């Protein structure tokens, strides 16, 4: 029997365009940040989030009504949205910011996502996003979004099971001592860990289909949010290069070298 309309899930997956994980990061000549004139791709943790949304639909069949992806970034972020659409998402939202604008901070992103959720006429039952972006490694957006929405949250998820009948999700998350199982009421914000799944490669037919899927364009003004960063980066420098070590012939020579370096012995 087909689930009733009230029980159909709408899933939102925020994603980010980031410097590709295989690129060797370098500081730009102005020392204002890193060199961005390199290969970019979808943040790996967000790829896992898209994959999990598609897998939930595959497991629950007709119980998932839609999977929508959203990104907040410059014009080239549209390519990242197309990748997510090719993986199986139905539609996308691009909150476009000027190419020259500094990247928004987690709180600004969370406020923008809240505004996006509030604009969805059919509502959002589940938000799945990466636990962190590999560029700033902040790991804050999911938690801030849950706080702003007043929703349950389950971070660092390694397993997600959704019960549409009870509107409940069982989430296994990784903690220092092992695994923790949470039972959360929907709506829910989930952040993904590495071991949740392995993202699929988009097939050529799906890449072609993705070109026809709708992308809604919005601006920060449309959402009524200010994405201006609160923090200012004064200077970015590369870490000092490692200096090679030296060899000593015996303990006495080692002690002499340590004394020259101003290192004194400490009694246990």
TrEMBL record:
Binds 1 AMP per subunit. InterPro entries: ET-Flavoprotein_bsu_CS (IPR000049), ETF_a/b_N (IPR014730), ETF_b (IPR012255), ETF_beta_N (IPR033948), Rossmann-like_a/b/a_fold (IPR014729). Its cofactor is AMP; FAD. Residues 31-227 form the Electron transfer flavoprotein alpha/beta-subunit N-terminal domain. The keyword Mitochondrion applies. It holds the Pfam family ETF. SUPFAM superfamilies: Adenine nucleotide alpha hydrolases-like. CDD domains: ETF_beta. The keyword Mitochondrion applies. Heterodimer of an alpha and a beta subunit. This is Probable electron transfer flavoprotein subunit beta.
């Amino acid at each position: 029997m087909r689930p009733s309309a009230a029980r159909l899930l709408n899933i939102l997956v925020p994603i980010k365009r980031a410097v590709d994980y295989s690129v060797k990061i370098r500081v730009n000549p102005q020392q204002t940040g890193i060199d961005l004139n390199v290969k970019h791709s979808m943040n790996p943790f967000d790829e896992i989030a898209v994959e999990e949304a598609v897998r939930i639909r595959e497991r629950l069949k007709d119980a998932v009504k839609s999977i929508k992806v959203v990104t907040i970034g410059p014009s080239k972020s549209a390519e990242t949205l197309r990748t997510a659409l090719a993986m199986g998402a139905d539609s996308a939202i691009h909150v476009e910011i000027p190419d020259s604008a500094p990247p928004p901070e987690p709180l600004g992103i969370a406020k923008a996502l809240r505004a996006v959720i509030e604009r969805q006429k059919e509502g959002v039952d589940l938000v799945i996003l990466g636990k962190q972006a590999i560029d700033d490694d902040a790991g804050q957006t999911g938690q801030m979004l849950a706080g702003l929405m007043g929703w349950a949250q389950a971070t660092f998820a390694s397993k997600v099971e959704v019960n549409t009948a009870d509107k409940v999700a069982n989430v296994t998350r990784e903690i220092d001592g092992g695994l923790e199982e949470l039972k959360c009421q929907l709506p829910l914000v989930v952040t993904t860990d590495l071991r949740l799944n392995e993202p699929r490669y988009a097939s050529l037919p799906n890449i072609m289909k993705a070109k026809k899927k709708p992308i809604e364009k919005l601006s920060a003004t449309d959402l009524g949010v200010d994405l201006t960063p609160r923090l200012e980066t004064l200077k970015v420098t590369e870490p000092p290069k490692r200096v090679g070590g030296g060899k000593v012939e015996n303990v006495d020579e080692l002690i002499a070298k340590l004394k020259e370096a101003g290192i004194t012995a400490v009694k246990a």
